[in-house]
Amino acid sequence: MRLLYLYPSDLGDDLIDAICATGVPYFDLSLQHVSKPLLRRMRRWGDGDRFLRRIDDIRRREPAAAFRSNFIVGYPGESEADHDQLLSFVDSAQLDWCGFFAYSKEDGTYAAGLEGEVPAALVADRLGELRSLQDGITAARRDELIGTDIEVLVDEPEIGRSHREAPEIDGIVHVAAALTVGTLATVRVVDALGPDLVAEQVPAVAGLSRRARR
């Protein structure tokens, strides 16, 4: 079970500890941007430095924690400096998964009345930069798992998910066809194909805890 779309302002120590204690330390953080002036324009709390400190704190408690976030690109008033801050944050945070979405004006919303529309061509360029950066980060983080043993839930024939992969939005783990759908299995990662992993079944070791296997 995962809690999705967590607001960083509400992510206190008790909630972090409770999530880590489940054995599924997956943190889907609703950040949207990291520039403090732009976040205030969005009527949102926080900034990149605060977010990084919270992520680092979670990783100290649970080094195996996985992170996902989403960011809006081209929000009215987004400057080149704001974009550079977001690029720097993405590089520093090294999140497992990130989604980047172009701002879309919707009638009747607060943002629809804001000045400072960002040209569509510039938004596309910024999206390309961010997605290219994150693709490399995600691939590198998946490569780091090669040679490790992980526990997966077999979702479909030959497809599993560890605690790092939320259904439908993240990568998957390719597993042996012999593994029964709906069961948990310990597998060894032998390859990474971009966001996806390839794993082989390994014998279960009696008495070995989930945390130890990770």
Briefly characterize the structure.
The chain is α/β, with parallel strands linked by helices and 214 residues long. The chain has helices spanning 13-21, 36-41, 48-61, 80-93, 120-143, 210-213; strands at 26-32, 66-73, 97-102, 149-156, 159-161, 173-174, 184-193, 196-201.
CATH architecture of the largest domain: 2-Layer Sandwich
H/E element order = HEHHEHEHEEEEEH
Give the CATH level 1 class of the largest domain: Alpha Beta
Number of domains: 2
Q: Give the overall shape.
A: elongated
Share in helix? 25-40%
Low-confidence stretches at least 5 residues in length (pLDDT < 50)? none
How would you state the average pLDDT, rounded? 94
Strand elements, count = 8
Q: Trace the largest sheet across and list its strands.
A: 4-5-6-8-7
Instruction: From the alpha carbons, calculate the radius of gyration and give it in angstroms.
Output: 19 Å
Strand-residue fraction?
15-25%
For this structure, the CATH topology of the largest domain is Transcription Regulator spoIIAA
Question: Could you give the distance between the termini?
Answer: 18 Å
The class by helix and strand makeup works out as alpha/beta
Number of helical elements = 6
Can you summarize the main beta sheet? 5 strands, mixed, barrel
